[in-house]
C-alpha cells in the first residue's frame, strides 16, 4: 500500500534489476582510469607533428633553397659527404623515427576506428608493428653504419 508522500515508481516485475540505475546509485562503482596511453599518444601526435614540420621544411630549405643548383647537386657523393657529419645523421634519424612513429600511431588509430573484428584488429596492428620495426631498424642501420669512404667521389 502506498502513501501520499511516497514517490510513484514505474510498474516493474518487482525485481531490483528491472529498474535502470540512477545517477546517484549506479550499479557498478566508479573505477579510476587505468591508463593514459591514448592521452599520451594524442599529445605525441601533436608534438611530433610540429617537430616533423620543422625538420622536413628545414631539410627542404637547406637542401633545395640555399644552393642555386637545387636537386641537381644531389648524388651518392653528396649524400656520403652529408652523412659523414654527425649533425646530419642525427637530423635524418630523428626525421626517420618521428615519421615512422607518427605515421604508425595514425594508422593504429585508423585500424581501431575501422577494423570491426578483434581478430582483424589484432593482425593488422601486428603487421603494422612489424613493418615499423623493420623500416626503423633498416633505416637506422643504414644511417648509423654508413661509411662515407666507400662511396667514390664525383669527378
Mean pLDDT: 84
Structural class: mainly alpha
| Biggest sheet architecture | none
**Poorly predicted segments:** none
CATH architecture: Up-down Bundle
For the record, the CATH class is Mainly Alpha
Number of helices: 4
Classify the fold: give the CATH topology: 3 helical TM bundles of succinate and fumarate reductases
Q: How many structural domains does the protein architecture include?
A: 1
Taken from the alpha-carbon principal axes, the silhouette is elongated
Helix content: 55-70%
Radius of gyration equals: 29 Å
Number of strands: 0
Say which CATH homologous superfamily is assigned: Fumarate reductase/succinate dehydrogenase, transmembrane subunit
- What fraction strand? under 5%
Helix and strand topology:
Layout (H helix, E strand, L loop, with lengths): L36 H29 L10 H8 L2 H29 L3 H27 L11
Give a short summary of the structure.
By secondary structure, this protein is mostly helical. It has one domain: Fumarate reductase/succinate dehydrogenase, transmembrane subunit (3 helical TM bundles of succinate and fumarate reductases, Up-down Bundle). The chain starts with 36 loop residues before the first helix and ends in an 11-residue tail after the last helix.
Summarize this structure as a short list of keywords or feature phrases.
single chain; 155 residues; mainly alpha; 3 helical TM bundles of succinate and fumarate reductases; 60% helix; 0% strand; elongated
Question: What does this 3D model show about the protein?
Answer:
The chain has 155 residues and is mostly helical. The protein has a single domain (39-147), classed as Fumarate reductase/succinate dehydrogenase, transmembrane subunit (3 helical TM bundles of succinate and fumarate reductases, Up-down Bundle), CATH 1.20.1300.10. Helices cover 60% and strands 0% of the residues. The chain has 4 helices and no strands. The protein has helices spanning 37-65, 76-83, 86-114, 118-144. The longest helix has 29 residues, at 37-65. The N and C termini lie far apart (105 Å). The mean pLDDT is 84.
